[in-house]
Write a structure and sequence with these properties.
With about 170 residues, the chain is α+β, with helices and mostly antiparallel strands. The protein has helices at about 1-25, 35-40, 50-65, 95, 100-105, 155-170, and strands at about 40-45, 65-70, 75-85, 110-125, 125-140, 145-150. Strands 1, 2, 3, 4, 5 and 6 form a six-stranded antiparallel sheet that branches. α3 (about 50-65) crosses α6. The radius of gyration is 24 Å and the shape is globular.
Length: about 170
């Protein structure tokens, strides 16, 4: 009886790590391909007026709190940065960073930033807009503690819906 029990426990112990490894393998998330990222970072608008689309982009970025440091209408390029003071109690950054302020402050993060670049390109009789966002967490010395791309499809959908409205307003001259 004892030998059978020991044999059973031995076989059970051998099988346990194999099943745990199989579950871990199922949890592995494959990184997105560049094509998958481009699909949710890009939107095409039915307008052949590049200036109108750029102006709408600039308006939305400024409405969202971005400081636009570079805009080149010839290339259709826009670069902007949005800074957050993590110690300011009036600012909610959980949407952009997915972390509470107390956790950021506990990790020594004093400034959180989101950088964006946008590319507006003529595409036949329409305009194709590609935008991307990058998050950075900076410590008290300004050194980056964390940098990553925003790969949340809903974040981009929300941004593009604001662009849709801004283009509509621009066309109506409101």
């Amino acid at each position: 009886m004892t030998k059978k029990l020991l044999l059973f426990l031995f076989i059970f112990c051998l099988a346990l790590p194999v099943s745990a490894r199989k579950n871990d393998a199922d949890k592995i998330i494959t990184p997105m391909t560049q094509l998958e990222k481009r699909q949710f970072q890009t939107r095409t608008y039915d307008s052949n007026d590049k200036a109108l689309v750029m102006k709408a982009m600039l308006n939305v970025l400024q409405d969202e709190g971005f400081i636009v440091y570079n805009a080149n209408p010839l290339l259709g390029f826009i670069y902007g940065v949005k800074d957050f003071d993590t110690s300011d109690p009036n600012i909610d950054i959980s949407k952009e960073f997915g972390l509470s302020k107390s956790r950021l402050n506990w990790n020594g993060v004093k400034v959180a930033t989101i950088e964006t670049t946008a590319n507006i390109t003529e595409y036949g009789k329409s305009m194709r807009v590609r935008v991307n966002f990058k998050r950075k967490l900076l410590n008290i010395y300004g050194n980056a503690q964390f940098i990553d791309d925003v790969n949340d499809e809903h974040y981009y959908q929300d941004f593009f819906s604001k662009i849709d409205k801004a283009i509509f307003l621009q066309k109506q001259k409101i």
